[in-house]
């Protein structure tokens, strides 16, 4: 519990995270509203662009500790190490759940379909944001470097949709769509996030810092 | 060697609301090791960054060999500096760090191997700098400062993280540089590091110079006219000496500090009173004491963490 | 400048991660097409007609014809054409039965006036667009086309050497109708007056749908079919198809050579990471102070870094692309996938353009890294600026104008340097980014990125100069 409070304080006391969360919400809403001009069913697709600042935030939460050497202080305070990552994940999840819900609600109100807020699609959009945040967090704890981590996350998110352009075989194409983080069912995306987080935790535990 | 000087004249610098320098003025001369001391936050690093043209002063100027640093064509041939020993890319080897610096000054690689030998870092030179100890980083930083064999060498806190052996080596090294008519400016927040090495000290606090004098003068002024008297009979001795009008304080067991009495007079007074003493000599203040006398009012962060 | 260059080159080569990154980027360009090979080529039932120029063509139309021996002439009035755009009705001299063989036509079109066309690629407008009288004359090996507004004053449009022409007659064709990013089969019906024939004509008027079983023929709309009826004073002919170079929309299963440069995207991300780190690590480790105390000319420092990372990127990417692109083309063709032909010059331009695109992106990343001084933000900004507009342009349900606009004004315009397909002016088709057609010409697209990079670089140099290090 203390670890969670400590991580919450870290998140709260630097200006970066708040701005990036705001950017996540703003970009999601703006893109969603713009897309709904084409087709109202696309209103919640804004999260596919809004996830970008969120990925930056989730990467920086861990990689900035490595670049400043703060990670040593953090891990000295919690020698078993894994609670640090779990606490970061929980704090991030809470922050994204709130931000994402507000963004989805705002999008639906602006596009005039506010009553749809309690729908499966809304829950899926918020869930998507949370899972992307956790995937980024896990990737960053694996790579430690923010540039490499964000590059990896952006590649995971945006390369498969490009790749499907080249794949002519329909079966492979469908397979790629089903497993790429961006287009996959939330359950598959959750698998991605869980894998990245557990690999990250394992590495943080095993590695010298 | 006329260009072997650093002249700092009336530097002012503000960072937003914080004032870092308020009229910093001093000169580092050839053939001397100039200590640049002051508590953390006194403006030492800011002054050095301005000397190197990294930061712009709001007012005043800093000259290296009579010229602004930024007007120098091969600056490292005029001034070699070590600001932050940790300023290394962790994946780049120490040797390659020196190679690119040498190339930037149009120097050959043979010079790199020479300075590596000078600082005793040949064996580790081809390893990634990320694995270096702080002492090794300091040596690498000093090698970088010496790369172009400059007439002026400026080191910011070079003793940080050095082991005792390293400290002895660096003192001798800097003395030798001064012996070859180089101007050496060494900053420190610890006076003891400079004792026995610096010829001149510039003591700074809150962005300006508090004292700028030869080490000998500084110690003499801090010593005042005090005497050290070592005796087993401290109370008897104190009574005898006080009767002459001198101020006496007991500084330690068996040790008295006497103010306002010449040595000869003290000897005769004690002899007349029949008080035995094992030592009686003028007090020689340490540089540390002199420094504390001077900076007592000038400390911004008395218990600030060391940077 | 030479000293800064050699110092910056030493800095670059002495960080193993950056060298590895550059090598990985080159490998991604070279090897990434392998990901597209899985599963083999799609089933392709019908043959692709190849025109005399070597490129794929659409060779499908409703043909009502007789055979002509020796010299002769056919004259006809097109009384009406129910069709739009490039719907065609007129006279044709066919050079052979096999799909893709040569021909010469003179025609009335739905929206482009009277034209004379031959061999799929060549198109010439008649002097009087409203002319409705057409005639083809064969004299020796030469086919001459003439048009007239009144049937008496004739104006020659063109003459074509076509010795193999024997079958001559009426034809009607209607290409696919495009709307947004989709297309649907078209159909057209024309009313012809009775043809006047001179010379030795044999056989009866017979009609058939030419090219019905070719891959580039999209068929008739549901419920429609081709045919001809002889009326009292002429013919009514209904037809579909086209006589034109095939575009990607005609051959969705085929690939463009530019597709094989898809490795550009993963390579771009790696290169952006490396180029960003080149400057952000200097800030992070305060190494920038050492660098600037060794040489205070900050603009030149940035230029030195840009030349090093740009040069390395250009060299490795060019080698990777120029060497492997022909190899992949060969492999893919051997595997049975049809690839639109592209001359060696175009392939070289696409390879060199890709290398330039990556080098410019590296300099952009270096500049953004200098401005932001933070790796994560800089990498994201550059990847988003270059890749995201392209990705959005691929989204099928967005209006095509959005995609066209994005690939015109954003840095993603530079991806147009990889286009290996050209837009024939005499074909209306789906010219979308997804199909490999860009709104700007290759070099103009690259110039857009150039402008962005130059502006960002200038701002970075200005800020580096002004800020305390």
UniProtKB/TrEMBL annotation, chain A:
Keywords: Membrane, Transmembrane, Transmembrane helix. It comes from the Bacteria. The chain crosses the membrane at residues 46-64, 85-110, 116-135, 147-167, 187-204. This is ABC transporter permease.
TrEMBL record, chain B:
GO terms for molecular function: ATP binding. This is ATP-binding cassette domain-containing protein. Keywords: ATP-binding, Nucleotide-binding, Transport. The lineage of its organism: Bacteria, Bacillati, Actinomycetota, Actinomycetes, Micromonosporales. Residues 6-231 form the ABC transporter domain. Belongs to the ABC transporter superfamily. Pfam families: ABC_tran. Transmembrane segments: none annotated. Gene3D superfamilies: P-loop containing nucleotide triphosphate hydrolases. InterPro entries: AAA+_ATPase (IPR003593), ABC_transporter-like_ATP-bd (IPR003439), ABC_transporter-like_CS (IPR017871), P-loop_NTPase (IPR027417). The keyword Nucleotide-binding applies.
């Amino acid at each position: 519990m203390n670890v969670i409070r400590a991580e919450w304080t870290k998140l709260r006391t630097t200006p970066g995270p708040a701005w990036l969360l705001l950017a996540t919400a703003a970009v999601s809403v703006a893109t969603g509203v713009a897309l709904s001009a084409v087709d109202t069913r696309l209103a919640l697709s804004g999260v596919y662009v809004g996830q970008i600042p969120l990925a930056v935030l989730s990467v920086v939460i861990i990689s900035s500790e490595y670049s400043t050497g703060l990670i040593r202080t953090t891990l000295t305070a919690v020698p078993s190490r894994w609670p640090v990552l779990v606490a970061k994940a929980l704090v991030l999840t809470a922050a994204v759940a709130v931000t994402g819900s507000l963004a989805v609600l705002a999008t639906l109100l602006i596009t005039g379909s506010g009553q749809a807020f309690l729908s499966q699609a809304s829950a899926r959009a918020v869930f998507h944001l949370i899972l992307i945040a956790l995937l980024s967090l896990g990737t960053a704890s694996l790579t430690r470097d923010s540039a490499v981590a964000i590059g990896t996350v952006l590649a995971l998110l945006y390369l498969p949709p490009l790749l499907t352009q080249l794949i002519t075989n329909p079966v492979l194409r469908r397979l790629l769509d089903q497993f790429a983080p961006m287009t996959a069912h939330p359950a598959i995306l959750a698998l991605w996030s869980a894998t990245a987080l557990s690999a990250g935790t394992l590495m943080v535990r095993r590695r010298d810092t | 060697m006329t260009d072997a000087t650093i002249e700092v004249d009336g530097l002012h610098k503000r960072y937003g609301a914080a004032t870092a320098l308020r009229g910093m003025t001093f000169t580092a001369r050839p053939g001397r090791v100039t200590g640049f001391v002051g508590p953390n936050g006194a403006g030492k690093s800011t002054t050095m960054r301005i000397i190197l043209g990294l930061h712009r002063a709001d007012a005043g100027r800093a000259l290296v060999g009579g010229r602004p640093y930024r007007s120098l064509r091969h600056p490292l041939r005029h001034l070699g500096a070590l600001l932050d020993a940790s300023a290394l890319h962790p994946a780049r080897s120490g040797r390659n760090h020196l190679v690119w610096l040498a190339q930037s000054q149009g120097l050959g690689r043979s010079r790199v191997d020479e300075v590596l030998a000078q600082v005793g870092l040949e064996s580790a030179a081809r390893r990634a700098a990320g694995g270096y100890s702080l002492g090794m980083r300091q040596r690498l930083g000093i090698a970088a400062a010496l790369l172009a064999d400059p007439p002026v060498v400026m080191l910011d806190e070079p003793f940080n993280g050095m082991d005792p052996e390293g400290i002895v080596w660096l003192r001798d090294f800097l003395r030798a540089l001064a012996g070859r008519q180089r101007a050496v400016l060494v900053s420190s927040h610890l006076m003891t590091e400079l004792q026995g090495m610096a010829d001149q000290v510039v003591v700074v606090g809150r962005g300006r110079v508090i004292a700028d004098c030869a080490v000998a003068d500084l110690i003499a002024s801090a010593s005042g006219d005090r005497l050290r008297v070592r005796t087993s009979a401290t109370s008897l001795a104190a009574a005898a000496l006080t009767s002459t009008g001198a101020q006496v304080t007991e500084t330690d067991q068996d040790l008295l500090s006497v103010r306002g009495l010449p040595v000869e007079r003290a000897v005769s007074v004690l002899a007349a009173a029949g008080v035995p003493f094992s030592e009686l000599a003028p007090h020689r203040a340490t540089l540390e004491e002199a420094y504390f006398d001077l900076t007592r009012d000038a400390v911004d962060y008395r218990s600030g963490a060391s940077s | 400048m030479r000293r800064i260059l050699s110092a910056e080159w030493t800095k670059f080569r002495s960080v193993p991660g950056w060298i590895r990154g550059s090598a990985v980027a080159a490998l991604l360009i070279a090897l990434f097409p392998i990901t597209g090979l899985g599963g083999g080529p799609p089933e392709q039932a019908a043959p692709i007609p190849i025109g005399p120029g070597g490129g794929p063509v659409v060779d499908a139309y409703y043909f009502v014809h007789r055979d002509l021996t020796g010299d002769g002439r056919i004259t006809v009035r097109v009384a009406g054409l129910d069709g739009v755009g490039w719907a065609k009705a007129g006279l044709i001299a066919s050079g052979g039965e096999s799909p893709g063989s040569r021909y010469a036509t003179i025609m009335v079109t739905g929206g482009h006036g009277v034209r004379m066309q031959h061999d799929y690629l060549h198109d010439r407008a008649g002097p009087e667009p409203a002319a409705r009288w057409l005639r083809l004359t064969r004299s020796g090996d030469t086919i001459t086309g003439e048009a007239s507004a009144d049937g008496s004053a004739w104006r020659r449009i063109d003459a074509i050497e076509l010795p193999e022409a024997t079958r001559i007659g009426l034809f009607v064709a209607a290409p696919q109708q495009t709307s947004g990013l989709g297309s649907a089969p078209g159909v057209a019906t024309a009313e012809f007056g009775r043809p006047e024939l001179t010379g030795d004509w044999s056989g009866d008027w017979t009609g058939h749908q030419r090219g019905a079983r070719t891959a580039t023929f999209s068929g008739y709309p549901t419920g429609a079919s081709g045919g001809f009826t002889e009326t009292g004073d002429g013919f009514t002919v209904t037809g579909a198809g086209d006589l034109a170079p095939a575009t990607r929309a005609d051959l969705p299963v085929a690939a463009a050579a530019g597709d094989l440069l898809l490795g550009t995207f993963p390579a771009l991300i790696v290169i952006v990471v490396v180029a960003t780190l080149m400057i952000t690590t200097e800030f992070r480790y305060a190494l920038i102070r050492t660098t600037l105390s060794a040489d205070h000319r900050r603009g030149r420092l940035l230029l030195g870094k840009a030349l090093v990372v740009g040069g390395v990127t250009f060299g490795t990417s060019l080698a990777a692309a120029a060497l492997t692109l022909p190899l992949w083309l060969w492999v893919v063709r051997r595997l049975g996938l049809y690839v639109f032909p592209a001359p060696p010059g175009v392939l070289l331009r696409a390879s060199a353009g890709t290398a330039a695109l990556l080098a410019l992106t590296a300099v952009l990343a270096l500049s953004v890294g200098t401005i932001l001084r933070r790796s994560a933000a800089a990498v994201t900004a550059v990847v988003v600026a270059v890749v995201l507009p392209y990705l959005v342009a691929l989204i099928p349900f967005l209006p095509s104008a959005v995609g066209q606009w994005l690939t015109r004004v954003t840095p993603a315009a530079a991806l147009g340097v990889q286009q290996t397909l050209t837009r024939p002016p005499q074909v209306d088709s789906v010219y979308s980014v997804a199909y490999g057609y860009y709104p700007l010409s290759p070099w103009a697209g690259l110039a857009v990125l150039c402008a962005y990079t130059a502006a960002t670089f200038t701002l970075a140099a200005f800020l580096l100069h002004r800020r305390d290090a």
